Amino acid sequence: MIILVLNIFFLFKFVDIGEFSSRVGELKKAKGMAIILLQYYELLANQFGVQHYPSVRSALAKFRFESESALTAEETLSAVLYYGSLVYETIMREARNYHLNEILKIISSDPNVKNFKGTAEIVIQGTGSGNKVLLEDEKKLLSMESVRKIEENPFFRGAYSSLRIEIDNGNPIIVNEDLLMQKINKLKAELATLRNRLETIASLAGFAPLEGEGIIIRIYDAEKKEGESNIIHDSDLRDVVNELFAAGALGVQIGQERVVTHTSIRCVGPVILVNHRPIPVDPVVIRAVGDPEVLASALELIERSLGLFGIRIEVKKEERVRLVGYRN
Question: How confident is the model at residue 127 (pLDDT cuts 50, 70, 90)?
Fold first, then answer.
């Protein structure tokens, strides 16, 4: 489990939100996350001894194929979230069945248990130390060899819960699965944390929708269009976007186009293209998620500058602004 925790910690360091949000256009970054998660799942399968199960191998292969075949960072993140969940569920299902069978196999093959007539109870108790397992066997049914095998089972090390097994005329029956479920629930929580982290990264990066307080900006051309200086240009929009991000904006959208690190904003004749798509103008509508007061204040200089040419900027502070995800 220590190795798994270190692996998760390394993943968190690797996908630092601040760094990722500034460089998210790099497909290489998303591919790197997929590789590390694949290593995590392979390590998880190895730890529980199910790495050679056909269902686990098939799920891992599907995860690898889909993440490697993705052509964009957005597709890669989607594959990681969806197929990663399938891999995890497969590993945990097979691990649960495998370790339950291993426990029953050890106990049922013990000669003392086989020949026992009547009822008895065996409790396997984890101490949380990582290297010690306590056994409660009041009738001393288990041989030293069986005790050793149970104590060496990695699934029981480091856990505080217990597993109670009832012996009925030589047949072991698992009465509860507290220990196994605790282990499974802990790993589910770890996976949920990873998934939430990736979803947060995708939102901040622009590849997934983002919602929060912010501002809505409308930029109007001058009423009297006497020259090019009286209409909005691509450079003006780039200035606005740069100011917003510099002021701490978590995300920006122009028209229906989400701004990411590789977004292009340029004029082609009278048309403004964002992400190579035309956007409506007069007004140009820009949405930004972040502190409304700070974002609005950051645009005051640009507002005065463009106002000299008759270009008008309206800024409205909102409690809830929703941004779409980037689309190819």
Answer: low
What is the DSSP secondary-structure string of 113-144?
HHT--SEEEEEEEE-SSSS-EEEEETT--S-H
Which residues 6+ apart lie within 8 Å of 234 measured at CB? 265, 266, 267, 272
- Angle made by CA atoms 287, 290, 295, in degrees to the nearest 5: 75
What's the alpha-carbon Rg for the chain, to the nearest Å?
Answer: 29
Structure tokens at 61: 């292969």
Buried b / exposed e over 134-164, threshold 16 CB at 10 Å, is eeebeeebbeeebeebbeeeebbbbbebbbb
Terminal CA-to-CA distance of the chain, rounded, Å? 40
Domains of the chain: 2-101+184-205 (no CATH), 105-179 (no CATH), 210-323 (3.30.70.1880)
* pLDDT tens, position by position, 8-41: 444 444 444 444 444 445 677 778 888 888 888 8
